[in-house]
Amino acid sequence: MVSSSTVATPESRLPEAVRAAVLARTGPLRAVRIHGQGRNNDLAALLTPMSGPVVFLKALHEDRPQSWTQAREAAVNPYVLSCAPQLLWSLADGGWHVNAFEALQARAARYAPGSNDLVPIVELLTTLSQAGPAPEGLGLSQMPARMSSLSTDAGVLAGTTLLHTDWNPTNVQVTVDGLRLVDWAWASVGAAWVDAAGWCVWLIRAGHTPAGAEAWALRVPVLADTDPTHVDVFAEATATLWAGAATQRGSTWHADLAAAAAAWSEHRRMRR
User: Fold this and answer.
1) Whole-model pTM?
2) What are phi and psi of 148, to 5 degrees?
3) Cα 77 from chain centroid?
4) Angstrom distance (rounded) from CA 96 to CA 232
5) Residue 137 neighbours by CB under 8 Å, 6+ apart
6) Cβ neighbours of residue 134 under 8 Å, at least 6 residues apart?
7) Contact 242, 234 (CB under 8 A)
8) pLDDT over 90 percentage in the chain
């Protein structure tokens, strides 16, 4: 907070505890544009230095239960540079974990029916599903373990593919050079079809019918070739996941996703 007797500067918008450490890397700032707080950060901001490139800063306080996601995202970054912005630097100081990425000139993907973004997203999902085994030694969650509390059949989610797992349209950024996939905080390892299946819930929330959402997701070959009973397990577990989140969080956003996931799971049950 800047008092009325203090001259406001761009850097004063950063948390005081981490300000000096950030400025040591960026130099004096011309502007700071705060993007607010998200699910995976306490602070997101665009930093414009007096000299040098614009930086997208993502910060999370160590007191947050999800503070470990900052280290995960930094560890994954070198392996996803074909589709993700580069991590420029990271630091832990003053109780904060900070990652700084190259800034994008971009907008969030549009998932609504008729969107021109849907075909490129199918292509991105297809490419990611064919990328080969995930790198070892990163300590990533395995999908069966991650979903074990939601399904007794979570073993069908096992695999070796590096997964993003959070297909919120704000994480799919559309640039003049193509799509960039940001926020790898929930990266995991599992079956290659999981990301394509998970996209269905977001498509339904954006206005697709469950059948319409699946029609788009099934354009990803690995999902089309997957045992439907395995997808059923994932759909049911996802519905349980979002129902619990809606109950715990109570937000309209969570309720919308819970409704979308329930509609998808029910659609698959009706087809059996």
Assistant:
1) 0.91
2) -65, -30
3) 13
4) 40
5) none
6) 79, 140, 160, 161, 162, 189
7) no
8) 81
Which secondary-structure segment (H or E) carries 228? Answer: helix 228-249
Residue range(s) in the chain whose domain bears CATH number 3.30.200.20: 10-102
d(CA 272, CA 261): 17
Length of the chain (residues): 272
Give the C-alpha separation, 199 to 208, whole Å. Answer: 11
Res. 1: pLDDT tops 50: no
How much of the chain exceeds pLDDT 70, in percent? 95
- Give the span between the Cα atoms of 206 and 180, in whole angstroms: 20
DSSP 12: G
What pLDDT does 11 receive? 82
- Residue 142 φ/ψ region, left for φ over 0, alpha for ψ in the -120 to 50 degree band, beta for the rest: beta
- CATH number of 10-102: 3.40.50.300, 3.40.50.1100, 3.30.200.20, 3.30.365.10? 3.30.200.20
